[in-house]
Amino acid sequence: MSTATGRATGLIDRLYATFESPRRQMLLMIAIVFVMAILPLIMGRYTTTIMTNALLYVVLALGLNIVVGYAGLLDLGYAAFFAVGAYSIGILTAQFDWNFWLAIPPALIAACIAGVIIGGPTLRLRSDYLAIVTLGFGEIVRFSARNLEITGRASGLSNIPEPSLFGYVIDSYVDFYYVFLLLAVCAVIASHRLYHSRLGRAWLYVRHDEDAAEAMGINRVRVKLAAYVTGSVFGAIGGIFFSVNLGAISPESFSFEQSVLILMAVILGGMGKIPGVILGAFIIILGPELLRDLGELRLLLFAVIMLLIMLLRPSGIWPERRN
Amino acid sequence: MPAFETFLQAIVNGLVLGSFYALIALGYTMIFGVIKLLNFAHGDVYMVGAFVGFGVLSLISGVVGAGWFGLSIAILVSMIAVGCLGVIIQRVAYQPMLSAPRLSILITALAVSLVLQNSALSLTDGKYTAFRTDLGFGGFEFGRLFISHQAIVLVAIAALLMIALELFVSRTMYGRAMRAVSIDKDMCRLLGINVTRVVAITFLIGSGLAAAAGTMAGAYYGSIWYFMGFLIGLKAFTAAVIGGIGSITGAMLGGLILGLLESFGTLVPFIGSEWKDVFTFSILILVLVFKPTGLLGKSEVERM
């Protein structure tokens, strides 16, 4: 590596080191949330909508981060969990006229079941097989959504009603911005708590050395399953609010490309590191907006960046550091 | 008896589909054998092969026509060019990652796949490209059963390539080295085998076979597009797993089995063509979960 890039990396590392202490990180987070909270007052509708989307991706990326970053399991079908949440809410509220809030628990249970179905029998597989199985599972969910009557076939579901809370109907774009901001903050707090929990340490251990973890009395299948189920709950929550925000969903929202985009957010930012993953989610959503003139080349650009990151800085832009 | 003819037709269709799967599955299995990498980009290498074959055929069709002779040249050139591309991919993307954690190299392979796919997307604007040939529509008719000349020749070419590969692997020095590397890389290095070169040759052959399949599939189905490698790549991987990943005979067998299964699957009224892919993926998941070593694979202990 040339001295110039070496110096630049050193500088960036020092910048990260400044934010290494938990207190500073906390302050930074509060500052960011504060800025985010007043953003819709300044920004127009267009920017606010994009930021809402970015916040959705923060939730999704943090969820996938639990599976990939914490537990070290490559999941290429994460959009399936997102789809399960979105379709459960869509079917219950639009087809069966359920109240939105009452429909959330069944949607989350459905996501947990999906997590167990995909996780349960496959977690003993080698890592690359696991990746393929999750990919296959994601495609099965999408094809099923496209072929089944209850999911509205290829055209999907529409007329998903807006939720109301104590008589206040959540319907404007600003309302949804705040809903997603709240979700993102909750996701960050939950991820942080999980990371420092007993389970979080078990994930770390399993990721680094599965056999040693097993020898130390960690039930690796149960621990990995916990990662899948937690990740699927994050994904389903994202899906639930995604579907009521748009009011309509179709199978193509949950394609393999979606799974890859979420994975890219996790990898770009740095697997396992919460601020890194948040940064990655924002880059994934805001990057294409800034590069709109490039058209289809921007996807190529993203793919090249992803490749370069893996080759040059495999731990991401803001990598994890843990002693 | 129409039912019997439908049955035979399904066999014919399954064989054509199966030989495409088999050619791609061979690449997966060989590359997996030497560097234990699931090459996610392999389906996209197949796609690039189809585009290169198409490009070559359009260039030379003015001189030699777009018949069987022209197509053979297109297949050959595409095999060589895309084989070299495979070697470049291996050198640039996979070689530096060989000692990295498994997760990193898998993601790198995924990134390579996306780079190839999106390059093709930008170059073609995501549109289907018509792959025109003058192969004719002749064939043999037995009542309602129809076997086109195209199907016969393509299956024959696929069979020839597979026999050549089998001979290469079992009879030549590099074939023997390849088998040795897949068993114990470090030992091979100690014994003076140029492992890097063996790996390069494996990528050359694997990618070349995928390119042949791509060009042939383009000519057979009449159109190509940037996303054509995704689904078939997954299915060929399924084929490789069914046969037992790492086993060359297994990949051929798995390809044919999957082609036939799919072709018969569409006949079952409950499955139908719209559930065809769900059917294939279910097979994949069932095989991976219950018999991950496949039909001919060896079991191995892995630390993830």
TrEMBL record, chain A:
Pfam families for the chain: BPD_transp_2 (PF02653)
Record keywords: Cell membrane, Membrane, Transmembrane, Transmembrane helix
Membrane among keywords: yes
UniProt superkingdom: Bacteria
GO molecular function: branched-chain amino acid transmembrane transporter activity
InterPro entries hit by this protein: ABC_transp_permease, LivM-like
TM annotation in the entry: 25-42, 54-71, 77-94, 101-120, 176-195, 225-249, 261-287, 299-318
Cellular compartments annotated: Cell inner membrane
Secreted among keywords: no
GO cellular component: plasma membrane
Membrane topology: Multi-pass membrane protein
Location (main, coarse): membrane
Matches recorded under PANTHER family: HIGH-AFFINITY BRANCHED-CHAIN AMINO ACID TRANSPORT PROTEIN BRAE, HIGH-AFFINITY BRANCHED-CHAIN AMINO ACID TRANSPORT SYSTEM PERMEASE
Protein name: Branched-chain amino acid ABC transporter permease
TrEMBL record, chain B:
Keywords: Amino-acid transport, Cell inner membrane, Cell membrane, Membrane, Transmembrane, Transmembrane helix, Transport
Pfam family name, one: BPD_transp_2
Major localisation: membrane
InterPro entries: ABC_transp_permease, BCAA_transport_permease
Residue stretches spanning the membrane: 20-38, 45-65, 71-93, 105-124, 144-169, 190-212, 252-272, 278-297
GO biological process, one term: L-alanine transport
Membrane-topology annotation of the record: Multi-pass membrane protein
GO cellular component terms, semicolon-separated: plasma membrane
A GO molecular-function descriptor: L-phenylalanine transmembrane transporter activity
Subcellular localization: Cell inner membrane
Family (UniProt): Belongs to the binding-protein-dependent transport system permease family. LivHM subfamily.
Entry protein name: ABC transporter permease
Source species: Spiribacter curvatus
